[in-house]
Design brief:
This protein is of the alpha/beta class and 313 residues long. It has eleven helices and twelve strands. The longest helix is centred in the C-terminal third of the chain and has 17 residues. The structure holds threonylcarbamoyladenylate (TXA) and magnesium ion. Magnesium ion binds next to loops.
Length: 313
């Protein structure tokens, strides 16, 4: 592997991808572990590096909404509207896959998840690459997603050929996943675009098939009960007062306890959430007591990830 060109790190990433390697890619949500979506051997490496089961489909990242028709067929009016209004941005659309999309990428399904990320480095990479980049979050399977280049290296080390450092991810939680192969559309995972915004955009096109208050766990992650999880225990409580009480009780038992309360500033809390959980592990915290924020805006995604981290997802 040649040394990275300091003046053109994206150019170096391109040469790694074209040679079938893996690149840590900053996005506005979390870092992705990217490979050429048209190269099955390269995509296999993603599953190996993450320890991820082969039937878990990967999102294909593309450089513009116009490229959707290269990867998908029978794109519904709902998908077109969401793509036109939210891309580039933290939204993944499930659409019927085009024949050329490899079953290695889709885990054998006949749908594909597509997203145009908004991070300038990811967009530059995608536009210069021309094709699609299959990329899950760049963490070990089941672990907390990475929001810095350092997190990617800490999780994957030598399994990743090159990491593009785009600084901390500005949103901090993953994309919202909307299944547009059914009508009305379904939100499978709350994320960076609030559920309320999706519902509003789909007014007149069938809306969404999900009450947008807070029906429980996201269904897109292999339906696992524990995901997005740190090593320490995570307990969730409804109020700050409950959190203090619970923390006091656990400390009296001799535990090291952190309290996190994302309710104040949801934007900041989403940005920091995964770093908080990783930091708790570094400091060998036994239990994180987390207050669930209200189910509004980014609160949907934060609630979902905290529940998954607590293994109650
Ligand atoms: O923000 C994000 O979405 C980040 C960045 C890197 O783009 N990516 C991400 O990928 O979170 P991943 O693989 O960690 O989570 C994507 C989820 C998985 O739970 C996967 O099962 C689901 O999306 N998914 C992808 N394609 C799918 C498909 N065709 N059908 C059902 N679920 C799908
Ligand atoms: Mg993930």
């Amino acid at each position: 592997m040649p040394f990275p060109d300091d003046h053109d790190p994206v150019g170096h990433a391109l040469s790694v991808l074209r040679a079938g390697g893996l690149v840590g890619m900053p996005t506005e949500t979390v870092y992705g572990l990217a490979a050429d979506a048209a190269n099955d051997l390269a995509v296999h490496k993603i599953f190996r590096a993450k320890g991820r089961p082969a039937d878990h489909p990967l999102i294909v990242h593309i450089g513009s909404a116009e490229q959707m028709s290269v990867w998908a067929n029978n794109i519904s009016p709902a998908a077109v509207r969401l793509a036109d209004t939210c891309w580039p941005g933290p939204l993944t659309l499930l659409v019927p896959k085009a024949e050329k999309v490899s079953p290695v990428v889709t885990g054998g399904r006949d749908t594909v998840g597509l997203r145009v990320p908004a991070h300038p480095i990811a967009l530059d990479l995608l536009r210069r690459f021309g094709g699609g980049l299959a990329a899950p979050s760049a963490n070990k399977f089941g672990h907390v997603s990475p929001t810095t280049a350092g997190h990617v290296l800490a999780d994957l080390g030598a399994a990743v050929d090159f990491v593009l450092d785009g600084g901390p991810c500005p949103i901090g939680v993953e994309s919202t996943i909307v299944d547009c192969t059914v009508s009305p559309a379904q939100i499978l995972r709350p994320g960076g675009i609030p559920n309320e915004a999706i519902a509003e955009l789909l007014e007149g096109l069938g809306g969404i098939d999900r009450r947008i208050d807070d029906l429980g766990p996201s269904r897109a992650s292999g339906m696992l009960s524990s995901h997005y999880a740190p090593r320490c225990r995570v307990e969730i409580v409804e109020t700050a007062a409950n959190a203090d009480q619970r923390a006091e009780f656990l400390r009296a038992l001799g535990q090291h306890v952190d309290v996190i309360d994302p309710s104040g500033d949801l934007t900041l809390a989403a940005q920091q959430l995964y770093a908080w959980l990783r930091n708790a592990d570094e400091r060998e915290i036994d239990t994180v007591v987390a207050v669930l924020p209200p189910p509004q805006g980014l609160g949907h995604a934060i609630r979902d990830r905290l529940r998954k981290a607590a293994g109650k997802g």
